[in-house]
Task: structure prediction
Amino acid sequence: MEVHMSESKPNLEEFEKLKEQPVILFHGFSGEQLNNLIDTLKHSPSFSGNIIMATTTPTSVQWCIKDLLLELSEERAALKELNQKKKSE
Result:
């Protein structure tokens, strides 16, 4: 899925809400390493399904962390909404 940054400046209030959101950002892993790591994390007794997990892209690695976290949060909300729509069909 391709992500585009919005033209508007990030809302500081929205960013403050993200301070409590767990995020794991992966960088430099091969596809196989990433799959193994995510499988291990998901089977961990302390794993929470509320963690945003993402990999860097050539574009996102250039963003400041605030912009990246806001974008990941928006993407997660959009995917959640899409999944809910699919379930209700």
The chain has three helices and two strands.
